[in-house]
Write a structure and sequence with these properties.
CATH superfamily: Class I glutamine amidotransferase (GATase) domain
Radius of gyration: 17 Å
CATH class: Alpha Beta
Number of strands: 15
Oligomer: single chain
CATH topology: Rossmann fold
Largest sheet: 7 strands, mixed
Structural class: alpha/beta
Number of domains: 1
Helix content: 25-40%
Strand content: 25-35%
Order of helices and strands: EHEHHEEHHEHEEEEEHHEEEEE
CATH architecture: 3-Layer(aba) Sandwich
């Protein structure tokens, strides 16, 4: 089973490419339990009317890609997700929104999620859900040592770029909405400053699938940032 990291975006045309491989893996796991339709745990932060309206997009995106039974759990400000949200599911989708809040609300379940994924549960992170999947996770910020490195609108209400211990499902730092929000520069600066050893910045409507190898699916690019002998090197991973 694989880790599916989506850079955001809601294009209906890209849904099959972006979510289809995840649902196929979940369906294979469901078949082992005698289920014809996979149960997908969908973890979403926010409980107000605006957040709930935005949350409708995640089950809708899954439906465009194939048959699934979404099992939605929500956490409000100051809440954590219940452990029961991980029970009897064939795949786990962690949605988008305020990355620091997703990190805080999910952190008590990190060990349990790691064990489930190690046991073959496919994981899909969307935007914030992708960023926290990293071992060393970027959760926001727009300056390093007071110097701007990304648009302030991408900062998640943080000033300095903040790195935390993430889920640890991948050993690369993850940034998202790369081409659309200009966050590639934040990742480049974080690598240059030694805050993370390397990483990928994922465009919207695009997924990086981490399994036995790396695959790119969807409409955009995945930008790879690594340390080189003469500084930071940036390139794209082939689809």
């Amino acid at each position: 089973m694989s880790i599916h990291l989506v850079g955001g975006g809601w294009s209906p045309e890209a849904a099959a490419d972006v979510y289809g491989p995840f649902l196929a893996e979940a369906a294979a796991r469901a078949a082992g339990s005698g289920r014809r339709v996979p149960r997908i745990g969908v973890l979403l932060h926010g409980t107000d009317a605006e957040a709930r309206q935005a949350h409708e997009r995640s089950p809708a995106a899954l439906a465009r890609a194939g048959a699934a039974e979404p099992v939605v759990a929500r956490a409000g400000d100051g809440d954590t997700f219940p452990s029961s949200a991980l029970s009897d599911v064939d795949g786990l989708l962690v949605g988008g929104g305020p990355t620091p809040e997703y990190h805080r609300a999910l952190e008590p379940l990190y060990d349990e999620i790691r064990l489930l994924v190690a046991d073959g549960l496919p994981y899909l992170g969307f935007s914030a859900g992708s960023m926290i999947a990293a071992e060393r996770a970027i959760i926001g910020g727009w300056r390093i040592d007071g110097i701007p490195v990304a648009p302030e609108e991408t900062a998640e209400d943080l000033d300095e770029v903040r790195i935390v211990e993430g889920l640890g499902l991948v050993d690369l730092a993850i940034d998202v909405h790369a081409a659309q929000w200009g966050t590639l520069s934040r990742l480049v600066a974080a690598v240059e400053a030694g805050l993370v050893p390397g990483g990928v910045a994922i465009d919207e409507d695009t997924a990086l699938i981490v399994g036995q190898d790396l695959r790119v699916a969807g409409a955009g690019n995945v930008w790879q940032v690594v340390e080189g002998p003469d500084g930071v090197m940036v390139g794209t991973l082939a689809a």
